[in-house]
């Protein structure tokens, strides 16, 4: 069987039979559940070991990830490293694309959508048609002597970012602690017992990656290999994983490919993984040298020092936001039981836990210097994960970062900015070779090699707006920070994206609007097919892109002529249109309710203009907001995990907290949330976790910056902060501290009996100075000195500390 056929067959097999390595299926049966709830309320906890991957608990330091199963006889740590991907550098641009493009555009304008689609699949879709996939490192397994266990509990403490397992067996209390240390870039496993000489186990590494091998270097397991080839692209990324065993007391005995520990008092395992990946065009690194040094440096520290450094680093991020929605006895139940019963409405703290879990997952999967969170964050147990576990940039990657800014995790956005910078390079090649255009473009998907050409097929791939949408996150980072150096860094990226559309927009025959052609409304179809010109979402994204580029150039005092060109082009984009049923139209034509159109499609692309875009707002464009409401009613509340989360966010920005809460109840149900609280698309995609977290935060605070034509900085713009814009009646009492607002503000809010009790707003030194605060029908205009703060009462009157 050649490699390509093996990839297809093995991928099919993985989907049919599940994970390549199963946990000990007897563990759960051997455990007697006697444990009480943990003292830390921000904990996921369970009375049995995980049998399925979606029951295991995730840890991560931004680069390394592990899923901890917590078995008594067999512990499985499934390992990931964020640069272990299939394939190597490649250029997927179809060589026939540029020549075929004029004919495709002509067919689309003539309404010959089927013919246009056929030609697009043949000539415009990239070669290869698919991209490279993210891959698992493999498993570290610890096999312990047999025995029944009682008083078992495993948990994931979000406050300390630590997974623990504890149980009693034969009169001994065993404890297991696992954390991913970011400063030292190691995963630490600490095994202890309350009696000396009672820890014995055998440790081994295994992987599904072909051509990999395990050797021993004294007390260290070493596994080396490389990522697979994919889609006729050879695999070039080499990796090495090392596990050093440090025992106190007892005996450590190396075997042929395992290490045995006998009768130790305590044991620490240090896990390091690295690859040869340097950047999207260079995989010449030396993973062995990296992991040897990493393990040596970590070994020089005590486990107490490693733990303290880990907590100090993690908590500096996590502790910035605190959320209290109330507590009930439901907190005493294990987490999977709470998910089962959340819709009954008596567990507000589970919503707070879900929010903080989203922040935990982002900290754990997206740190400066690493890769952005992909479709599964950083956690993947397969060589062939669903959709390659790549970066789907027609919603999913963007949704991953929706909770970052308001959740006070600005650092976690850095990997996304770095990836967009890379895409502006590879996307320039695609723009030139495929479109004959300046600037850069990225379509609906990318991978670690930063591929930017359209892939898959027409209905998903022929969409030019992925890079343009990502530019909104770059602008958001500036609006939240006011960082002038950041603006200088991102402006060329915004400008390049805008230049591409200046060069490629086409004149629509009937209204003479400037439109994208060919394009789609992501993954949806109209009566003639998928291809179209100027779908609503494209126009909304372009209005944001052009406006933000104009503002950036104005602040920097550059490109005056280009600003005028952008403004003139922006004025010729198609307006938002309201259709026959009062809905916001998804396309230029009123096709939304036509026969054959999916009325309950998971994507709500045309509603981007309300959220996360800037085109529509409840107060400034009430007719359009009403049309969004109608579209949501027609689409329905229930969808896949991420699509449910988007609906939650949209209803929140329509100011309907109770409707948003009803959607949250579905999102946090067993249908859309696995026992370990991972989002169930299904299968697992992490974007639903992040979208749900963003929606919860937006129930309590939303912000915008005003448009000032001649603004010289964020500080010169007037900020708008809305307090409790969509508070559901299910949370009558509560508080939140540390949310971030545009303009550099930090916001604390407390409420009682469903009404505002108090608010505190702090101003950053480089942020906006003036703001309007709104609560219900009340508004207050405030000036805050840089670095200062104001406190407000329930009537938005200034209160003194």
Commentary on this structure:
With 801 residues, the protein is α+β, with helices and mostly antiparallel strands. 31% of the residues lie in helices and 22% in strands. It contains 19 helices and 31 strands. Strands 1, 2, 7, 8, 9, 10, 12, 13, 14 and 17 form a ten-stranded mixed sheet that branches. Strands 3-4-5-6-11-16-15 form a seven-stranded antiparallel sheet. A six-stranded antiparallel sheet has the order 18-25-26-27-30-31, with helices on one face. A hairpin with a 2-residue loop joins strand 26 and strand 27. The longest helix is centred in the middle third of the chain and has 22 residues. The radius of gyration is 27 Å and the shape is globular. The chain starts with a helix and ends with a strand.
Radius of gyration: 27 Å
Fraction in beta strands: 15-25%
Q: What is the terminal separation in angstroms? A: 74 Å
Mean pLDDT: 93
Q: Would you report the number of β strands?
A: 31
Content-based structural category: alpha+beta
- Total DSSP helices: 19
Based on the model shown, name its key terms:
alpha+beta, disordered N terminus, 19 helices, single chain, 801 residues, globular, seven-stranded antiparallel β-sheet, ten-stranded mixed β-sheet, 31 strands
Give me a quick take on this structure.
By secondary structure, the chain is an alpha+beta fold.
What is the topology?
Layout: H1 3-17, E1 31-32, E2 43-46, E3 57-60, E4 64-68, E5 74-81, H2 97-109, H3 113-123, E6 138-143, E7 149-157, E8 162-169, E9 172-181, E10 186-193, E11 199-206, E12 213-217, E13 220-226, E14 238-248, E15 251-254, E16 258-264, E17 266-275, H4 287-299, H5 303-318, E18 322-324, H6 335-341, H7 348-365, E19 391-392, H8 396-400, H9 402-406, H10 414-435, E20 445-446, H11 458-461, H12 466-481, H13 484-504, E21 506-507, E22 514-515, H14 536-556, H15 560-571, H16 622-635, H17 641-653, H18 657-667, H19 687-700, E23 701-705, E24 719-723, E25 734-741, E26 745-752, E27 755-763, E28 770-775, E29 778-783, E30 789-792, E31 798-799
Parallel strand pairs: 1-7, 24-28
Antiparallel strand pairs: 2-7, 3-4, 4-5, 5-6, 6-11, 7-8, 8-9, 9-10, 10-17, 11-16, 12-13, 13-14, 14-17, 15-16, 18-25, 19-20, 21-22, 23-24, 25-26, 26-27, 27-30, 28-29, 30-31
Helix pairs in contact: 2-3, 7-19, 10-12, 10-13, 12-13, 12-14, 13-14, 14-15, 17-18, 17-19, 18-19
């Amino acid at each position: 069987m050649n490699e390509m056929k093996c990839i297809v067959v093995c991928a099919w097999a993985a989907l049919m039979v599940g994970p390549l390595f199963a946990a000990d299926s007897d563990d759960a049966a051997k455990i007697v559940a006697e444990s009480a709830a943990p003292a830390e309320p921000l904990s996921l906890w369970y009375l049995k070991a995980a049998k399925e991957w979606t029951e295991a608990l995730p840890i991560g330091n931004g680069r390394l990830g592990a899923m901890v199963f917590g078995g008594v006889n067999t512990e499985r740590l499934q390992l990931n490293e964020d640069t272990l991907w299939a394939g190597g550098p490649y250029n997927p641009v179809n060589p026939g694309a540029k020549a075929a493009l004029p004919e495709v555009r002509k067919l689309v304008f003539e309404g010959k959508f089927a013919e246009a689609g056929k030609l697009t699949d043949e000539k415009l879709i990239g070669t290869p048609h698919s991209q490279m996939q993210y891959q698992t490192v493999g498993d570290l397994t610890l096999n312990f002597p047999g025995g029944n266990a009682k008083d078992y509990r495993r948990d994931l403490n979000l406050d300390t970012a630590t997974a623990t397992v504890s149980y009693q067996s034969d009169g001994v209390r065993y404890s297991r602690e696992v954390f991913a240390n970011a400063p030292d870039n190691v995963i630490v496993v600490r095994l202890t017992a309350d009696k000396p000489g009672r820890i014995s186990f055998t440790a081994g590494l295994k992987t599904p990656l072909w051509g990999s091998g395990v050797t021993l270097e004294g007390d260290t397991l070493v596994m080396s290999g490389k990522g697979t080839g994919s889609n006729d692209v050879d695999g070039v990324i080499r990796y090495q994983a090392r596990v050093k065993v440090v025992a106190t007391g007892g005996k450590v005995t190396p075997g042929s490919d395992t290490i045995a520990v006998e009768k130790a008092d305590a044991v620490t395992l240090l896990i390091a993984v690295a690859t040869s990946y340097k950047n999207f065009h260079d995989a010449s690194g030396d993973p062995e040298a990296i992991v040897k040094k990493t393990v040596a440096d970590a070994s020089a520290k005590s486990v107490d020092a490693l733990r303290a450094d880990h907590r100090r680093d993690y908590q500096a991020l996590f502790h910035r936001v605190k959320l209290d929605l109330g507590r009930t006895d439901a907190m005493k139940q294990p987490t999977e039981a709470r998910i089962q019963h959340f819709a009954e409405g008596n567990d507000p703290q589970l919503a707070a836990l879900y929010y903080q879990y989203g922040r935990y997952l982002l900290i754990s999967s997206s740190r400066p210097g690493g890769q952005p969170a992909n479709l599964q964050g950083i956690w993947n147990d397969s060589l062939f994960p669903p959709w390659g576990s790549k970066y789907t940039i027609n919603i999913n990657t963007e949704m991953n970062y929706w909770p970052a800014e308001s959740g006070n995790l600005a650092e976690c956005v850095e990997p996304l900015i770095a990836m967009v910078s890379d895409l502006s390079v590879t996307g320039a090649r695609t723009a030139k070779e495929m479109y004959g255009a300046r600037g850069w473009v990225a379509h609906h998907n990318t991978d670690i090699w930063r591929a930017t050409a359209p892939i898959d097929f027409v209905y998903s791939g022929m969409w030019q707006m992925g890079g343009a949408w990502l530019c909104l996150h770059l602008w958001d980072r500036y609006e939240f920070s006011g960082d002038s150096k950041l603006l200088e860094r991102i402006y060329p990226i915004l400008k390049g994206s805008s230049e591409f559309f200046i060069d490629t927009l086409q004149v629509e025959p009937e209204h003479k609007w400037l439109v994208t052609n060919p394009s789609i409304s992501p993954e949806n179809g109209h009566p003639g097919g998928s291809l179209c010109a100027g779908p609503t979402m494209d126009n909304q994204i372009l209005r944001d892109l052009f406006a933000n580029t104009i503002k950036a150039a104005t602040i920097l005092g550059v490109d005056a002529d280009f600003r005028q060109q952008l403004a003139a082009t922006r004025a010729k984009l198609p307006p938002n249109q309201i259709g026959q049923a009062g809905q916001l139209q998804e396309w230029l034509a009123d096709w939304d309710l036509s026969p054959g159109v999916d009325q309950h499609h998971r994507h709500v692309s045309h509603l981007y203009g309300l959220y996360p875009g800037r085109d529509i707002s409840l107060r400034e464009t009430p007719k359009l907001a009403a049309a969004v409401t109608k579209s949501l009613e027609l689409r329905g509340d229930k969808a896949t995990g991420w699509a449910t989360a988007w609906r939650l966010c949209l209803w929140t920005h329509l100011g309907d907290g109770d409707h948003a809460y009803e959607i949250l109840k579905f999102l946090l149900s067993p249908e859309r949330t696995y026992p370990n609280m991972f989002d169930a698309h299904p299968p697992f995609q992490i974007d639903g976790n992040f979208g749900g977290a963003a929606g919860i935060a937006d129930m309590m605070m939303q912000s915008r910056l005003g448009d000032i034509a001649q603004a010289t900085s964020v500080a010169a713009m007037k900020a708008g902060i809305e307090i409790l814009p969509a508070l559901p009646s299910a949370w009558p009492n509560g508080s939140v501290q540390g949310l971030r607002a545009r303009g550099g503000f930090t916001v604390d809010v407390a409420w009682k009996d469903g009404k505002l009790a108090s608010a505190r707003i702090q101003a950053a030194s480089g942020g906006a100075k003036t703001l309007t605060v709104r609560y219900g029908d009340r508004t207050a205009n405030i000036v805050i000195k840089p670095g200062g703060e104001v406190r407000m009462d329930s009537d938005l009157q200034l209160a003194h500390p």
